[in-house]
Design a protein that fits this description.
With 70 residues, this protein is an all-alpha fold. The chain contains four helices and no strands. Helix 2 crosses helix 3 and helix 3 packs across helix 4. The radius of gyration is 18 Å and the shape is elongated.
């Protein structure tokens, strides 16, 4: 019985793990700002975040850093 509960809990936990798709169009917006948009470039990432996602400096900095921008 415990094994069944563990399997069900693992299945529920794994069901929530799926990659987020960009459905907001922010990539298209970033491509309009920079013709060769490089999300790993901190300046481009910050500008795209602020302009396209209506972010602020603090949240965009954190987001870009988590995405690997330097």
């Amino acid at each position: 019985m415990r094994a069944m509960i563990a399997i069900v809990l693992a299945a529920v936990a794994l069901a929530g793990c799926k990659p987020d798709n960009d459905v907001t169009g922010s990539i298209n917006c970033a491509n309009k700002l920079y013709s060769p948009y490089h999300p790993k470039d901190m300046n481009q990432c910050m500008a795209a975040c602020i302009a396209c996602d209506r972010g602020v400096i603090t949240t965009c900095s954190t987001s870009c850093t988590l995405k690997g921008a330097r």
